[in-house]
Every structure is written in C-alpha cells, then in structure tokens.
Specification:
The protein has four helices and no strands. By secondary structure, the chain is mostly helical. The chain has one domain (16-114): Up-down Bundle (Cytochrome Bc1 Complex, Chain C), CATH 1.20.810. Residues 1-115 form the Cytochrome b/b6 N-terminal region profile domain. Its main location: mitochondrion.
C-alpha cells in the first residue's frame, strides 16, 4: 500500500464529492449510448425503448444503469450536501453559493430529463 499524508479528521463522508463525479460520468456515457438508439417521435418512442432493451447488446443493462444511476447520483448529492451542513461548510459563502447554484442546476436538469 501507498502511505500518503492525510488529515487526521478525514472520514468516509468525504468520498461523496468523488462519487458524484463518477456518477456524473456514468450518467453522461450511458445517456449518450441510449441517445444513439432512441427516437423521440410520439409514435415510435415506446418501440425504440423496447428495441434498446431487447435488440441492442447490453441495452437493458445500459438503460438500467442510466435509470438507477440517477437515483445514486441524487443519493450521493444529498449526502454530500448533508456532510457540508454538518461540518459547517456554509461558513465559506462563495463555495456554498456555488454549491447551491449547482444543486439547483442539477435539479432542473433532472426535471427536464424526467419530463
């Protein structure tokens, strides 16, 4: 193992920022793969989803990763915000304001993605 210096107060609660980045990358990649096969026409939308799940290699897996990845992303996001509140990160106004703006942007993006 590599022995690197780390603060003595670090805990598992500090992993959620990195997990958010990993979840975001997974969401982007699976979303791109799904977009390659999805048609948004009202007559063919359902059949294109069925095509992804049945005919595309591992399409069912990519679709489930994308659907469940959104839930994992928000779980990590809320734990990340909760950790920030618990440790008093709101005292750093500029960082906190950027975080709130990002939270609102993510919620708006998720709303557009669900609708």
């Amino acid at each position: 193992f590599i022995d690197l210096p780390a603060p003595s107060n670090i805990s598992a609660w500090w992993n959620f920022g990195s997990l958010l980045g990993i979840c975001l990358i997974i969401q982007i990649l699976t979303g791109l793969f799904l977009a390659m096969h999805y048609t948004s026409d009202t007559l063919t939308a359902f059949s294109s989803v069925a095509h992804i799940c049945r005919d595309v290699n591992y399409g069912w897996l990519i679709r489930n990763l994308h659907a469940n990845g959104a839930s994992m992303f928000f779980m990590c996001l809320f734990l990340h915000v909760g950790r920030g509140i618990y440790y008093g990160s709101y005292l750093y106004k500029e960082t906190w304001n950027i975080g709130v703006i990002l939270l609102l942007t993510v919620m708006a993006t998720a709303f557009v993605g669900y609708v």
